[in-house]
Design brief:
The chain is of the alpha/beta class. It has 2 domains: 4-58 and 357-411, Urease, subunit C, domain 1; 60-349, Alpha-Beta Barrel (TIM Barrel), CATH 3.20.20. It contains 16 helices and 18 strands. Strands 1, 2, 3, 4, 5, 15, 16, 17 and 18 form a 9-stranded mixed β-sheet that branches. The protein is globular. It binds zinc ion.
Length: 434
């Protein structure tokens, strides 16, 4: 079932250690794992995907998002982060029960897969409900318990959050789906006290968890945290021992040189979200500087209420354009941007040994890019094509751990007509808040 022979790929972008691009290549996926590249003899009895006219590459990895917020697409426009949060929190309070979170995640997981994203690091309430929904659609969905000082829309108090975290590995195992690392997700240093962060760090250490949270998204956040604690967010994370666990910073727009050093010493990584940062006027993360220092940089969309969609190709393109704006066109390394969307993200998330590249022994999280569109002709530079010309509509087929979750631009595990009807029905509840 999860075996496929992908034949005659015009190109295979591997994201391996030498960024190899293979031409006219064949891949054999056996039981969800890439078992051979250009096998000498064709295995019998497996499904064949004729990839002539296609480019095969690792699935894209969205390293910071809030999937269920797809239901709030276009809900908070023309506002900065503060105005955004006020408007969004009102809507979340009105509709985001577990069932609705699951519905929003189902919608988002479908959108993500159709656009070539195979993994998402997803911070949102009711992770059991969202995880079940995303796994059913076929996404490699990294959810985890959320930690906040105050009662969130999930109505949980601090001890409930700790209890949920202790049970999370069992809940995730019961749901099944592709392998994911264990993550704890305190929202940020401005919503979680140092005492609470220290408690999360201690529990995380006991349970072998990794951490994902928002860090230095805006200058206002940095000012606020400095006023309250006399430290930068990264310093708070170091001192509470959060950074003793592998940590992925959502955004990381405003990291000082000293923050970069702290983060490097502790192996923290940055999930760069240029679309959301530009839209909310949060600033621009200097990923050229971060990468030169040795920080791993993944790419992310953020939630649909601030980025409006989950288009990783748009994020890839924006990331490249912003490097050019800040450092000049010569500084743009398109291969490095593609690595950020694939293997570097995988490494940042703790999945580097499983996905993110096309190599024997890796799980088959693969996408096929149909090269037949006029906007993809001619091909002088494959990496530049991926960064500046390919879009979501060019993704024809998607596999997650060998499961063909998108077949010829159609989701295989979801009835999209029923999904769109259910979404339209549910968001009617927001009418009174407009
Ligand atoms: Zn976020």
């Amino acid at each position: 079932m999860r075996s496929v022979l992908i034949t005659n790929a015009k190109y295979v972008v591997t994201s391996n250690s030498t960024n190899e691009i293979l031409e006219n290549a064949t891949l054999f996926v056996r039981d969800g794992v890439i078992s051979e590249i250009n096998p000498k003899s064709a295995p019998e009895g497996v499904e064949v995907f004729d990839a002539s006219g296609h480019l095969i590459m690792p699935g894209l990895i969205n390293s910071h998002t809030h999937l269920a917020m797809s239901l709030l697409r276009g809900w908070a426009e023309g506002v900065d982060l503060q105005g955004f949060l006020e408007r969004v929190w009102a809507a979340e309070g009105a509709i985001m029960d577990p069932e609705t979170c699951a519905l929003g995640t189902e919608l988002a997981a479908g959108e993500a897969l159709l656009g070539g994203t195979t993994t998402a690091l997803d911070m949102y309430f009711h992770p059991t409900a969202t995880h079940r929904a995303a796994v059913q659609v076929g996404l490699r969905h990294i959810a985890g318990p959320i930690f906040l000082d105050f009662e969130g829309i999930d109505g949980l108090k601090w001890p409930d959050r700790i209890a949920l975290a202790k049970n999370w590995p069992a809940s995730a195992a019961e749901i099944g789906g592709p392998h994911i690392p264990l993550y704890f997700m305190p929202h940020s240093t401005y919503t979680d006290s140092p005492e609470h962060l220290a408690e999360v760090a201690e529990l995380g250490k006991e349970m072998g968890a990794r951490v994902h949270l928002h860090v230095s998204e805006t200058l206002m956040e940095n000012d606020d945290v400095r006023t309250r604690f006399g430290k930068t967010p990264a310093e708070v994370l170091r001192d509470t021992k959060i950074l003793d666990l592998p940590t992925v910073y959502g955004h990381g727009v405003h990291l000082s040189d000293s923050d970069i050093e702290i983060s490097l010493a502790k192996s923290a990584s940055v999930a760069h979200c240029p679309g959301s940062n530009l839209k909310l006027n949060s600033g621009v993360a200097d990923i050229t500087k971060y990468k030169a220092a040795g920080l791993k940089v993944g790419l992310g969309t953020d939630g649909c209420s601030s980025s409006n969609d989950l288009d990783m190709w748009a994020v890839i393109r924006l990331a490249a354009h912003l490097v050019s704006l800040n450092h000049g066109a010569k500084a743009v390394d398109v291969a490095s941007i593609i690595r950020s969307a694939t293997i570097e993200s995988a490494e940042a998330l703790g999945l580097g040994d499983r996905v993110g590249s096309v190599e024997v022994g890796k799980e088959a999280d693969l996408i096929a890019v149909d090269l037949s569109a006029l906007h993809l002709m001619p091909i002088h530079d494959v990496m530049a094509l991926l960064v500046y010309a390919v879009g979501r509509s060019d993704v024809s087929d998607v596999w997650v751990a060998g499961d063909r979750v998108v077949r010829n631009r159609v989701l295989t595990h979801v009835d999209t007509l029923s999904l769109s009807t259910r979404v339209a029905e549910r968001v009617k509840a927001l009418d009174s808040l407009k």
